[in-house]
Amino acid sequence: LKRVQKEYNDGADWLNVCSSVRNGVAAIFAFIIPLIAYRTNRKITHMICLVIGGLGLLSIYFIGNPTMIIVSMGMVGIAWASILSMPYAMLSNALPANKMGYYMGVFNFFIVIPQIVAAGILGFFTMKVFHANTLNTIALGGVSMILAGILTLLVKDDDKNG
Question: Taking the model in full, what pTM does it have?
Fold first, then answer.
């Protein structure tokens, strides 16, 4: 039992390191996103970031060395920086200024509700469909993020560069 507790604690400590890498990369990359958007446009920038993040999640499935997950989480951090900013930047041009707060709040429902649904069903899905193999669930997340990046190209955005 002590060995299991130690392995659990070691895993939890490693999760903290990986989460810190993801958030640190996101904080730094947030300053780079406007430069990329200026050279391309917001849709292309968001697509690139989501695809990088999706590849980062997908790479976890193939990595045998836990230390290499730091690279994967850095890639997810790039996507996270974009997820926290680019959808709002794209939406802001389409909204009337006097209703911006209201519509941004409604837009947040479309972020939060899927998160709640995912939290409610992914555990069951992982157990029943993937037979408790969480790496398959992470890979599904990576594929989903890549698909979301590609679908970003269908979004109408009146960006001056787009």
Answer: 0.91
